[in-house]
């Protein structure tokens, strides 16, 4: 079992882009288990070179990494970022896999040598659900997907994010 005592890097930045709070909650959970970690919104993120490890969190915006985080990553090629994110879909299933692969491919093409990329589910803003009804019919499957996302990120997700984050820093 990893503990904060085993951490190797000393200066750690956790930066995130979040509109409805899901990615921010994951970022806060991660920063909370890393002693001395600096937690900043992506708009205030300094040059990653000032840190030994940089976690960058973003949300899935219509199948792409949210814009400000994407721009930050691509404007610092060659830094080995550690990536995390939230999305409405279930990580590892169907469309979420397409999204994850797309982000990986785009960053690789932009020569951003990220170390890992983990996703957690995040509730979908009710206003967006309302607006998208016109474009996407509310099938029973869609309604149940939205309902399933509504409780995330939950306590288990946040704990999982903390374990994952410590593993990133201990290199195991
Ligand atoms: C404009 C918009 C577009 C979205 N597009 C997708 C999408 O393509 N796929 C998906 O799984 N979730 C999508 N979502 C859901 C968000 O990625 C999810 O709710 C995320 O956790 C929001 O993060 P935040 O609370 O940190 O802003 C979208 C949400 C919004 C508001």
UniProtKB/TrEMBL annotation:
Domain Flavodoxin-like: 13-162
Name recorded for this polypeptide: Flavodoxin
Coiled-coil boundaries: none
Gene3D superfamilies (alphabetical): 3.40.50.360
Keywords: Flavoprotein, FMN
Keyword Flavoprotein: yes
SUPFAM superfamilies membership: Flavoproteins (SSF52218)
Molecular function in Gene Ontology: FMN binding
Highest taxon of source: Bacteria
